[in-house]
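lol forgot to send this yesterday, sorry. struct tokens for the thing we talked abt
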């Protein structure tokens, strides 16, 4: 049995100026993330729901798209217009999009 499909968009089809929420854990975020993305780990989402950024829609990203799909399903159930970024940060980096890291380290997707 599978749940309902969640809305998804390919990295290549993300609109300019998209509000991007990165739900990976802190070590993943520090290693490399999309510039301008906002960070709210999936493990802290329900406790920090007031910090969910405004976006219509809100694009949610993780490493490969699995966690972000679960977050999108949850957010949709709470009335948020959320969309999963298919392929996650792995696809983001594979398409040559900019990745930044904290502390001047070479960015990587872990």
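and heres what i got for the seq, position by position
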């Amino acid at each position: 049995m599978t749940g309902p499909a969640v809305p998804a968009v390919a990295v290549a089809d993300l609109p300019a100026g998209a509000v991007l929420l990165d739900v990976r854990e802190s070590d993943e975020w520090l290693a490399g993330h999309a510039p301008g993305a906002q960070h709210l780990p999936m493990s802290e989402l329900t406790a920090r729901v007031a910090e969910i950024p405004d976006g219509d829609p809100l694009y949610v990203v993780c490493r490969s798209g699995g966690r972000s799909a679960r977050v999108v399903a949850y957010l949709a159930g709470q009335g948020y217009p959320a969309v999963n970024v298919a392929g996650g940060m792995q696809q983001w980096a594979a398409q040559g999009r900019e990745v930044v890291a904290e502390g001047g380290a070479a960015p990587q997707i872990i």
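The beta strands are 8-10, 19-22, 38-39, 58-61, 82-86. anyway ping me if u want another try
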